[in-house]
Amino acid sequence: MKSSNEDISHIIQTRDPFKISVLGFSAIEEALEQLIQEALPSPHKLETQRLSPSFKVDLAIGLGVFPHDFKGIVIKLSKIRNAYAHEFDLKVKPFKSSELVSAMPEEQRTSVSTIKNDDEDIQVLSFSVFTTYIEVTSRIKYFRQVRAERVRKFAQLKATLEEIPQPIIEQPSEYYINYSKDLDERIKKRQDLILENMLSKKT
């Protein structure tokens, strides 16, 4: 089941570093797998699940769908998750806020610099998990939008090429005005049909 912003918010509201680390990073990793799948020409869910978090980040970066400067914080959160997963004494926190901050990209580090209180470690951890999750999921949405626009433009071009017949030079100018209007309508109808066929094949 895919996580949502609301799920991450509920996890953070527990203020439990174990839950925030383990469940929060699981959501980040799940979203990272989805991002990779979106960028690949065909689904490879089983394969991506078997990859290490470090390899997943490198793959997403290599595919051009994830920023390199976020690699450090993803790997750091992965290590914290693993530490909690193998730590029997949950009272011991396997991280410090300063370590998280140093692993952050500049945009995250700038935003977190104002957190200074007794609960700093938990707040920085929560901030790291939530903003990293948002970064990955926003990349998924952006990639889908770009791909949808490319499909739309391809359909428009294909429809235009299919609807343009050989011109008849002898016809008067009024003929070409009406012809242009009719052509636009036929291109739009064919474009819609092409898009409908392309989408039906995906589902």
Q: How does this structure look, described?
A:
The chain is built from nine helices and no strands. The protein is mainly alpha-helical. Helix 2 (17-39) packs parallel to helix 8. It is elongated.
Summarize the structure.
This protein has nine helices and no strands. With 203 residues, it is mainly alpha-helical. Helix 4 packs antiparallel against helix 5, helix 5 runs antiparallel to helix 6 and helix 8 packs across helix 9.
Q: Report the mean per-residue pLDDT as an integer.
A: 83
Largest pleated sheet: none
What is the number of helices?
9
Secondary-structure content class: mainly alpha
Tell me the β content: under 5%
- Write down how many β-strands occur, each being a DSSP E stretch of 2 or more residues: 0
Percentage of residues in helical conformation: over 70%
Low-confidence stretches: none
Secondary-structure element order, N to C? HHHHHHHHH
What radius of gyration results from the CA coordinates?
25 Å
Please report the distance between the alpha carbons of the first and last residues. Answer: 19 Å
Shape: elongated
